Fold this sequence. Notes:
Chain A is an alpha+beta fold. Helices cover 49% and strands 13% of the residues of chain A. Chain B has one domain (3-120): 2-Layer Sandwich (Beta Polymerase, domain 2), CATH 3.30.460. In chain B, the strands form 2 sheets. Chain B has a 5-stranded mixed sheet with strand order 1-2-5-4-3. A two-stranded parallel ribbon of chain B has the order 6-7. Chain B is elongated.
Amino acid sequence: MKEIINLPVQSIEEEEYHINMGPQHPSTHGVLRLVVTLQGEIVKKLQPHCGYIHRGIEKMCEKDTYQQIIHLTDRMDYLSAHINNHAVCLLVEGALEVEVPERVKYIRTILDELNRIASHQLWWSSFGMDLGGLTCFFYGLRDREHILDIFEESFGSRLLHSYYTPGGLMRDVHPNFQKRVKDFLKYNRKKIKDYDRILSGNVIFLERSKGVGVLSKELAINYGVTGPSGRGSGWACDIRKKHPYAMYDKVEFREVLRHEGDTYSRYMVRIDEMRESMNIIEQLIDNIPEGDFSAKMKPIIRLPEGEYYQCVESARGELGIYCISDGNKNPVRMKFRTPSFVNLGVLDKISREMKIADLVAIGASLDLVIPDIDR
Amino acid sequence: MDSEKLTDKILEIVPEAQQEENKQFLTFLIPPDKLKTLTTHLKEEKELDFDYLFCLTGVDWGTELGVVYHLTSTSLNHSVELKVKTDNRETPEFDTVTDLWMTADFFEREVWDLFGIRFTGHPDLRRILLEEDWVGYPMRKDYTDEVNIVEL
């Protein structure tokens, strides 16, 4: 008995140990493995291991035509499939100097924003669930269903649309489209108030998100953290404002900025962005001009020899496509600068010296989509 | 800064830089040994202030391997594209830019993984998308893999 008492007291908090979060972990929302070095409960270091669903999309693009590439981009950030398609279409249209009809621009902008709302709703659902509020998951998915129904009615698919083609759209939208979108806006305005009531002012939620995972503006720029995560740190990085495409230079909307840089400000940016997206749709939905749904394009697209870069604002940040063409029907090199891949890089920096439970909140607030990281 | 002044400024720092024709960006081909000097100047000088590296791409041009850097300044709103190329396909190597832009960390690991280009001074150069024991660099044009790549 005496011997036991005389043993040197060694606190567990002095030792460092590693745990694996993932590849199968509910809070990573996919197959991402985080090797976390811990001292007690405190995160000392974090190493992301990605590539579990690497499909070699960039390599496949080198064998594909531009119309085929659109179908691959759906599979990167599957929650903003329209916006990914839009990037390829703008790249091709810009290179060929094709002017798309006004109607196409209107419909594309509306669909992009609907897609952004759907993406943010799913993010809100899973964010609440990660922090223990299961109600959010049901509420968010219930409301997102309305958008997916609108998508399904117009072009038959709910998640991976491939609806945009270089020069326009696959086919015209359903005659009910305008009415259903307006009904949805009316419905969603009420529901967003519910989101605030359930989560935004909740004491437990505030305790777990305020001051957690602070990212300064300088760091956000240095790490290239774009999208709502970057705007939560006060960096005005919205591509829709900086390099407007489609109808974004003709509609009025506010670039949502917050300056605290913590998990809560990243959360609030997304909530406010849903409102801004609805404002954009409201300005456009009654004024969709009549006309063709596609410009005349050649069946085989060959980009002139040269290099092209096109960026769009996806739901997660700046999606850039860098393309080198030698004049053939498939590109020499197609590089996707995906927002999740870049945003993942900052996770180690901002989660150090935080508790492991906070890591879940920080990871969720960056809104990572794993196929977007692995490509 | 407008593109003429920017061109003069870059040519002043690196006289060997060759300007290339490009509609979108001001593009320069830089000798690999001058990359570190130029990027440090671009980042640190107040009137240039290139604080955001928004894209870093590895490219295989067939005979040459290389890297393309896209830089912009968030305060002054000017952009530039830099290219480095090498004929050495056995052990291609460039200086890292991770000490200037942390976003280059993942980008350079990806280029190492898929193109086999080493970056001197990178803190943790490991494969990022493929497994550690993968043989070869799949994004190179001369890469062949009878098992994993199906030719149609």
